Structures are given as structure tokens and as C-alpha cells.
Amino acid sequence: MSALVVAGAAGVQVRVHDGLGDWTGSAGLARLGRPEGVPGEGRFRIGSVTKPFVAAVALMLAAEGELGLDAPVGRYLPDFDLDGAITVRYALMHLSGLADYSGDHRPDGAGDPGIFPPIGPEYIRKLTTGYEPAELIRFALARGPRFEPGRGFFYSNTNYLLAQLVIEKITGTSYADQIRRRITRPLGMASTLVPSGPRIPGPHAHGYVAYRDHGDLTVADVTEAHPSWYGAAGSIVSTTADLDTFVSALLTGRLLAPPQLAEMLAFVPPDGDGVGIGLFRKEFGPGRFGIGHFGSVPGFLCFTYGVPDGSARMVLSANRGAVDRSDPAAVAAFLAAVDKAVTTCFAALHVPDGKLSEFR
């Protein structure tokens, strides 16, 4: 955690549960220029770790006969004139081929910015601007597909905005309401919410974006961001304790019925690293597989993974600091520190032999 702060995170917090018990820790600052450390139970933006929540809701609706995983998305959303081969399953697994309205971002921070302007003053201003899901979806559709549905993998937030609208069309309520009714309330996740405005309520760390403005490094506080930026693709705010509760309930079978959990864990390809419905399987070391998701939104990173049976879990949140996005070396060093922190954390989990690879 300290190495990650040195590399450019403002602060880091970690929660671990394994055979030896529970451990939490933090490093760095809640806010640049202030002495307070990261609040151990503070909220943060979880980014795309939102996607497993949304996928779980979709699977519950499938179990109730309200949603067909292999039905065309266009059956539920005819106004978008979608390719009939794009199924709900393909959307939830990023196999639809749809472009990403938020851009095609490479790990070094470069790439197509999508509907949002490049990093700079206008980008910072846009963070608090509201968008309608249909507006973002239509922007992506206008860019054309990456490939024929089912013929490849491309991580696209557009898929989960479609899932959001499908859930809302079927239930007649917001996806936020469905997450609250079906997941956070039953599991007692009182600190988890889909915010209705730009602010993060309660104690929380601040996240930053650093960029060059006429040669000078500007460090902008981007903690406040409109939730419509990502919607069902990444808008949830939570804590390490609540995320640990969620991944435990999910992987141990307390949240979904066995057939739906099996659907969620049907990874492609069937061996090694793979993608499932709202989840990824990642090999953190020889034979050490984790199941979960990662999240990245302006100012915040989040990683939530558990071993296949859910008996050991880790959650890491980092609020970004003054990492100069225009300096490739600084960005590479920060990303390497993030990868090392997450890998080291998962590798330290105490798990009986045979538990880490049983889903391989």
C-alpha cells in the first residue's frame, strides 16, 4: 500500500478475509494537502464493480421468467434498432461487439476518449454534467460495431447501459431500486448506494486527475461526478466491508439460486483467464485464480476478488493522486504499483490446498 502511495495514489484501503480471519489497513491521505488518513470505513466510487450487481439482478429476473438471457436485447428495447444477434447474455459478457461510448482506453491512459472531451478543464466540467442513457447508447451505436455479436470480446460500458434499460423496462422501476431491493437491503449493505447526485455522502476519500495545462501540472479534485456518466456500468458508491459482504454472498451461493450462479460462472474460455456474466476470472499466480471485477472511474480504482468458493476475499480501493497523465513513465509506474498491490494482496490470502483452482 505504501508503494502504491509513493507511485501516485493519494490513499489506499484494503480489506482481507481468509482462513486466518479478517484484516483491514490503509495508507496515504483522504485528501491531498490535509493530514487526515483514509477513513477505514469510508465510502468510495467502485466503478465497474457495479457490473456484478447489475448482472446479479438480471439473473434474478431470468430465474423469475421475466428475462431471457439468450433473448435479443432488441426484444426489450426496440427503439435502438439493435442487431438481432445481440443477446442479453452477449451484452452482460461484453461479447456484443458494441463500441464503448466512454472510449477505447489503453492502460497507459491513451486512446479514444469517446463522448467525453480529452483530459483538461472541459473534461473536469463535464464530470458534473448529467446524461441520459439513450444519448450515450446512441453515440456508441453511431460508431458502428467492433465485430459481429459473439465473435469476439470488447469491454464496453455501453452493454451495461442497455442492461440498465432492460431491467427498468421489465420491472417498471429504476435499476438502483432493484439493486436496493434485491441485494443491498437483504444483505444489510447499509453503506452501499447508487447516488442520485454528484456527491459522495458520509466520510470518504477524495480522488484526483492530474493533467498539463499550458505546460503546468494541474491537479483537479474529481470526487464529485454525476452518476449518469456511467449509470449501471459504474456508478455505485460503497465501502470495503460492504463489498466483502457482496462477494461473499455471491460466491458462496447465498445471493443467487444454483442455476443462476452456474450461469454467472460459466467463463469464456473455460480455462485460464476468462469472462463470465458480470465477472472475470483472473490467474494471480500459478494455480491461484480469483473471481471478481475491477473498477476505474475518474479519481478512483477498486478491485474486488474472491477465491472460487468465496471462503477468502480481498477488496482494494485507491483514490488517485497527482499522477501526470501526460507522463508515460509516471503512468506506467502507477499502474505497475497497482498491479503489484492487488497481486500481492491476493497472493497473501490463506486458503487450504485445492480451493484456488477448482473452477479452472
TrEMBL record:
Protein name, entry field: Beta-lactamase-related domain-containing protein
InterPro entries reported in the protein's UniProt record: AmpC-like, Beta-lactam-related, Beta-lactam/transpept-like
Pfam families according to UniProt: Beta-lactamase
Superkingdom of source: Bacteria
SUPFAM superfamilies in the record: beta-lactamase/transpeptidase-like (SSF56601)
Domain called Beta-lactamase-related: residue spans: 11-326
